[in-house]
Here is the input.
Amino acid sequence: MENKTTGENLHKGHRQRLKQKFLDNGIEALNAHEVLELLLFYTIPLKNTNDIAHELINRFGSLTAVFDAPVSSLCEVKNISENSAVLLKLIPQLLRYYQSSPDVNQSMKDINYVKRYFTALYIGVKDEEFKVCCLDNNLQVIACNTLSVGSAREVPIDARMVAKAAFEANSQWVIIAHNHPDASPNPSQEDIKLTSDIAGALNSIGIEVLDHIIVGKGSVYSMKDYGIID
Here is the structure.
C-alpha cells in the first residue's frame, strides 16, 4: 500500500512534469483536462487536480463550456471553491482584455486589425451587445463602450446613444459593432436599416460612421467591405 509520503511525492512530480510540458511546448501541447489541471494547481494546492479537471469536462462538456459556466454551477463540483470558480471565470475575460487592448502602433484604417480588435471584444460574450468605438484624428481608439445588451434576437439602440458616446469622447469618427453569438455574421435587413439610420443621423451633426462590424460564429462581417457603408 502506498504511504502518504510516496503519494505526495508522486503528485508533486506530476505537477512539475505538467508545468514543464507547458513551458517547453506551450498550451497547444496540453489536452483540455490538462489546461484545467494546470490552472487549478494555483487554487487547490494539496489535492490531485486531474480527477477534478475530468469531472469538470464531463459535467459541462468542453473546456469552453467550463469557462462559460456560472460560478454557482462550478461550485457544485466537488473540491471547486469560489476561488477556483473565479479563476476559471477570469480566463476568457483576461483573454478578451489582453487581445482587445488598443495597440498604439495600429489604426482602424487597417481592416484586418479592425476585425481582430472586435473579434477579441466578443470573446466569451453570450448575449448580443452593441458597441461603439470612438477614434481620434489618427483613427486610433479613444474609447470603446458597450451601449446596449439585448437578447439573441434584438439589441435596442438608437443614434442618440452613439452620438452621446462620440461627444463624450470628443470624437468625430466612430465604428459601431454588434455580435451574433450563435449565428452567421451576415447582416439582416434590420441591421442594414439601423446602420443607415445611425450613419445618416450622425453625419448631420458632423460624426462619421466608418464601419459597422458584426462578429458571428467563427467569422466577422464588415459593412464597409461590402459597400453598405461608403
About this structure: The chain has a mean pLDDT of 87. The first strand starts at residue 128 and ends at 135. The beta strands are 128-135, 141-150, 173-179, 208-215, 220-222.
